[in-house]
Every structure is written in C-alpha cells, then in structure tokens.
Amino acid sequence: MYKFFIILFTFFTTRAFNQDQGIISGAFETNANVFLRDSSINAINTPQYDRQFFGGEAWLNLNYSTKDFKIGTRFDMFNNSNLRNPTDSYSGIGIGRWYVQKSLGQVEISVGYLYDQIGSGFIFRAFENRPLFIDNAVYGARVKYNFSDNWNVMAFAGKLKNAFDTYTGNIKGLRVEGFVSLGSDESPFTLAPGAGFINRTISDENMAGVIDALRTYLDEDRFIPDHNVYSGTIYNTARYKEFSIYTELSVKSKDIFYNPFAMKKEIVGNSTGKLEQRAGTVFYGSISYAKGNLGINFEAKRTENFNFRIDPNQRLLRGLVNFLLPLNRQNTYRLTARYSPAAQDISEMAYAADIRYKFSKSLSAALNYSDIRTIEGNALFHEIYTEIIYKYKRKWQLTSGLQLLSYNQEVYEMKSEVPLVKTIVPYLDLLYRFSSNRSLRTEFQYMDTKQDFGSWIFGLTEYSIAPKWNFEVSGMYNVKPKKVNSKGEIEKIFYPTLGIVFIKDSQRYSLRYVKQVEGVVCSGGICRLEPAFSGFRFNMTATF
Amino acid sequence: MAKKYIFLTSAFVWMIFLGGCDEIPVKLADPVIPDSERVVIIEELSGVSCPNCPKGNTSVDNILAKFQGRVAAVSIHGDFLSKPTAKSKFDFRNQKAKDLENWFKPWFGKPSASINRVPDENDILMNSIPDLWQAAVEKELQKPHILNIFPEVKFNSDSKTIDLNIAVIPLESIKGNFNISIFLTESEIIDAQTNGADIENNYNHKHVLRDMMTNFDGDFFGNDLNKNEILRKTYSYSVSPAASTLWKPANMEVVIIIHHNEPKDESVIQTSYLKLIK
C-alpha cells in the first residue's frame, strides 16, 4: 500500500514544481456480486455460494500528464473474486499498475507496467481484459524513437505481469513502423508497413518444470528444450481509393508448448496431450472495399503451432505473450452470442466475409459468413448471420435477422461424444421513441437446437428515460430442455434478469438481479467455462 | 533517411544474430532417490465424465510402476465431472470423496493431484499438470524417513467387517499435532470413462476411493511424537449391505497416512498400504 502513497505523493509534488500544471484524469470501476445458492441451475459448490456470499472487484486509475511527461498508477482490489478462477475465490489488494513516460525530443522513454502490441498481436500483445482476469502488462522499460512523423522504432524488455507479481521468464522485443504515401491527391496510394521481433527466454525455474515433465516421457516424445524462442512478423496496410488490404505474416522458431491434441506414447498404450517443441506460423490477410452504400470485407487466417507463453507450464489464459485475432462475428444479442468460438492456436484455418448495403436512408442490410476448420479440414465453427435495419423517421427502428450456426463442442469445450451444436436463431430488436428522452426497446430471440441445453427463448424490454434512467426486464427460458439439473431431472428453467441503470454526468451505476445459465464465455478470442450465476450484480464506473 | 536505414539494418542483423545462437543443451537427468522406507501418497482428483482424467490416471500408473512399493494412490471421484456417463454401470461418488474434493480446494480443474499434501509456492495443494506429478513425488521421496507404520488387516467375509490394527514407531521425535486418515480403495473396476472426445466402455478404474475408516480429514492420532515410542490404534469397519454387493474385496487396498494437523501444515509424514485380502 505504501507504493500507492509514494505515487500519489509524486503526483502532487510533480504538479507543485512543474510550471505546466498538466491534467489529472482517472477512472474508477467496481463490481459487487451477491451470490444466492440455487441448485436447480447448478449455482452451487463454489466458495461464494457455499460460505462467502459476496465477491467483488475494484480498480482505480489515476493519470497525470503534461505536454511531454506522463505518470499513472492503478489500484486493484479483488475481494473473494471469481474472475481469476470461476470455481474458486481470489483475494488481493495492491498496486496493479504504475508507469512513468517522458518525451525527450524524438525519444519517448517509458518504464513500469506497459501495454503495447506488435502488428495485430500475433507475436506480442500486452493488454488488459478485466472480465477474463487478463492483465499481461510488461513490467519493464520501453524506448520509442521517432525518426520522422511517419517512421518510428520501439524496443522494450521486461517481465510479464502475473496478478500482483511477475512471471520469472524474460521478454524483449523490437518494432519498426512507418507510413509511405506513393500516389497523388487524386489517386492516393498509401502503405503502412511494419515489422516486429520478440525474444522470450524461459527462466531456469520454469525450465526445471519443463525438464521434470520431459523426464517422464518415453524416448519417442522426448526433446532437448531450448530456453529461447525468436518470433518475427511483417505486416502492411495498403490503401488505394476504396480498397484497403492488410497482410501479416508471423513466424516463430522452435518453441515449447503444450499440445492438448498430440498423442503421447506411454509404457502401455497412448495418452493425449504432451509438451512439444515446434516452429509455428500465422498468416493473416483482409481486404475491404467501401464505396457509396456498399461495404465488403473479406478475411482469412491460417494458424499452426502458435501457442506462445512466457512459461510453457502455464495453461488456459495464463502467461500468454500473444493474442490471436478471432475471425468470427462478435455478436451481442444473448442467444446469437451463446456459442462463440475461441481462436485455436494449434491448428486453424478461418475465413470470414461481411457485406453491408444501404438501400436508402431508412433501409440497410448485412450478411456475414464465417467458416473455421482445423488445417486438416475438421469442422469447428460455421456461421451465417443476416441483419436488416429499418428506420422510420426518428420514431422507431427495427433490427432483425437470422443466424445459422454450427459449433464444435468437443474442441471448444472439451466435451466428449457430443455432436456439433447446430442452431437457428431468428431475432428481432424494436426501438420505439415516445419522445426525445423516452424510449422503449424490446428484444426477442428464439434458438432452435436439438443439442446441448436444447432450445431457448429470450425476451427483453428496456425502458429509457434519457439521460439518467434505464429499466430492464429480461428472461431466458429453456423451452425444449435437454440437460438434467443437479437433481437429475430435465426441467424447464426460467432465467430472469431485472435491472436498473442510473447515469449521472460521467458516472454509471447498475444493479441487476440475475439468474444466468452456465456456459462458455468468450471475449476477444479467448474462452473459459463460466458457472451458472444466481444473485445480485452491482457495477459502477466513473471517469474524471 | 540514411540513419533510418542504418538502424533498421542493424536491428535486422541483431535479430539474425540472436536467432542463430545455439544454446548449450540442457540435460534430462533423473534425480537420485535415496533407498529408504519412506512411502509417498498421491491423492488424485478424478471423474468418469472428465475428458482429461485418463491422462492423470496414466501418470499415476507410471509413477507407481517406476517407484514400486514407495508410492500409494487414491483416486477421488467427488462432485466435479464425476457424474456417471450415459454408458456407466457404476457411480463412484460418495460423501467422503465429495468432502475431500471440497477440502482440497482451491484447485484449477481435473485431473489434479496432491503429493503428500505439500503445498506449492502459491500455497495450493493440488497440481493440475500430470506431467509434473512424478517430480513432486521424487522430491518427497528425497526427504528423510522419520516414521514407520506397521498395519495388520483382517477381512471377515461372512460378517463383512474390516479390522485394522496399526502400530506406529517414530524414528525421531516429531513436534506437532497429527491425524490419521485411512482410505479404502478398489482397483480393476471395469466401467465407462470419458477419454478426450470418446467414452471408453471398458476402462480399468484403479485406486477408486470407496470410503474411509476415519473422518474425511482424518482422526486425531497424537501430538509431539517421541522417538521409538510405539503407538497403537485399532479400527473396525462394517461394509454396508449395498456396498458389499458392489465391492470386490480381492481388489481392495487399505491406505493409511499419518499427517500434520496444523492450520498451515497438513503434510503427510508417512504412508502405508496393503491389500485387504492377502
């Protein structure tokens, strides 16, 4: 805690001695959950349901900046939180981040906990995603040199953050980015090329873990592990008139990673999953066209052996050095977002296409298609999504469409002998404005499926009194249930949500009573199992 | 402009230079395990609906084969992913297994195993990486042997009772409070097991915890044990009529552990195991 006061002291002394008074800004966010045990939806058997009953988190960011100087800190608190492990409780309080940044002419120096990325993040991305307890900041130093307005180079070195500690391995990298204009004013042609390089060195402590595992392998599966991995990427955005083309090619030298699908030879028979040391690649390209009322975007990505961690002994979301961009559509409606795939790092071939057309001021339509397979051709995910938006003056707006989807639960959720989940989801969203500050929004979705939990129906009504109040009532009902509950019965269960949101200036308060079905939560291409929730959720955000 | 190209070229050369470096190869050498009578316990959290658990079972099998007579195993089928599959004939869940599974929390998932109930650097008893269990067992086997357990078991097949006599001799004086836990396990149970994307109908389930002759967290054994002072305990257990039709005594083992019973230390100091029927 003393660090927090040191940083606060630095803030104010810096202000006092600096003629340029600068700007103090910040943001506060808190979640508070009250857990109400409900065995009918499997909201049981976690410390929060069994004995703690309350869990929450809070973050406070404080930043101070002048023309060429920035400092900042972040207070983090986890109090019986289920974010780190949804089936467990985690508590911790401390300084989650601090940084100091100074510009000296063409040079920019930063130290502390730093967020950054190279290209699309295939070889390196240090980022924060609070709902998934991801905070992969690099604790170290970074120097950026601006050769000109268009060209710069950045180099950094440090360790990867692990909650209030750091992983023991080291990471360093380099990025060169630029901008070149080749065309004329009438016929502009621009390039935004870049290249990056990352070196990760496994610590002796982590290597001991790798060796301990390899010692148990038979000769067929053993390898001599290397401490270092080198990864490079080149990327470019080319723009010519209405066309934009982005390409990125990333390679990784032989790296140790856990392959959950690899066959491991045992004394008797085989088992699945082992450490491997292989080189990896990611190839990604997108082409987009936008002119008048038409917009088209096409993307393709091929990923092979690109699991990249600071410590090969880490699993799931821990210790990730990079970020693999998901190509599927990021849906927002409750039932259209129910089955969302995580980007696969061992073997994936993905395509996506998006077409939008505006027929008139009041009518527009969109079609999205995505197909994800393994490189070997096994189907993982397939989605066709249509959307029609009709606006009638400023009085009402209708959004409607159909989603057709298939989803491989065996791969994404490690479920055994389950068929591909195939769903058809028609949806409708109607917004009606009574006056300039009062409106009613209703949502209706129906998911037809014979797999997993069976068919669902979802409805929502949201009444807004702008700019301060928002009231919502929603319900999700398992109309044709397939799953048995904890009592071993197939039951039609209703999952209601009641919520109220209050907004004042830059503050937002929300309180909800929620019953939420268990499932897989995916955010930014990463998924994990989320147990059922039953209870109250309070959220507050404030910026200043 | 020239400066820019010089810098970019030197950076590229730096990358190639680093990428071309050869490391001195590491050695995959096994540690030296002292020859002693110390026996270690693996308490594994498993489940018949757990796709990754066969990997944990295999790891335990390999350890038992490598350190014969030096390691005992208990496979705990509690709540999580332990519900029988659509093809299962039996339900391995029982109250003691559920209580133990909860007692071992926090753990990240299954399979997980605790080796002698020694916590890791994060104060967590359960290790969720089966490849690393052997190293943890080796570390425990390297520790000094400080206590002997001499068990004697009699199973009466008519009355379905198990009588267990235990004599314990500390080889040095040991301070603290100690509990004893006694597990009844069964192997060679052929039933369904989820394995990756498949369900294996004829999976050989081993060391399945059937019940305990003590409380799930152990019974009080003693405190401040004195060197060479013999301590004796007697336990009797009646197999329930329902269990007696299911369990096969010929495939059962009695596993005994003496462990610390302190708020921050539950570690096992010695394990002993023997067949229910010789």
Explain what the structure shows.
The complex is a heterodimer of chains A (544) and B (278). Chain A is mainly beta and 544 residues long. Chain A has a domain at 1-91. Chain A contains 4 helices and 32 strands. In chain A, the strands form 4 sheets. Chain A has a 24-stranded antiparallel β-barrel. In chain A, strands 6-7 form a two-stranded antiparallel sheet. The longest helix of chain A has 16 residues, at 2-17. The two termini of chain A are 23 Å apart. Chain B contains 5 helices and 13 strands. Chain B has helices at residues 2-19, 53-66, 95-103, 133-141, 241-246; strands spanning 40-46, 71-77, 112-115, 147-156, 161-170, 174-186, 189-195, 198-205, 208-212, 219-225, 231-238, 252-260, 268-275. In chain B, the strands form 4 sheets. In chain B, strands 6, 9, 10, 12 and 13 form a 5-stranded antiparallel sheet that branches. Chain B has a 3-stranded mixed sheet with strand order 2-1-3. Chain B has a 3-stranded antiparallel sheet with strand order 4-5-11, with no helix packed on it. In chain B, a hairpin with a 7-residue loop joins strand 12 and strand 13 (268-275). The radius of gyration of chain B is 23 Å and the shape is globular.
In short:
The complex is a heterodimer of chains A (544) and B (278). Chain A is mostly beta strands. In chain A, 7% of the residues lie in helices and 59% in strands.
Main beta-sheet annotation of chain A: 24 strands, antiparallel, barrel
Radius of gyration of chain B: 23 Å
Q: Any idea of the CATH class of chain B?
A: Mainly Beta
Tell me the domain tally of chain B: 1
Helix content range of chain B? 10-25%
* Total number of strands of chain A: 32
> Mean pLDDT score of chain B, rounded?
89
Structural category of chain A: mainly beta
CATH superfamily of chain B: Immunoglobulins
Biggest interchain interface, per-side counts: A-B, 50 and 46 residues
For the biggest sheet of chain B, the summary is: 5 strands, antiparallel
Kindly identify the CATH topology of chain B: Immunoglobulin-like
Q: What's the CATH architecture name of chain B?
A: Sandwich
Mean pLDDT of chain A: 90
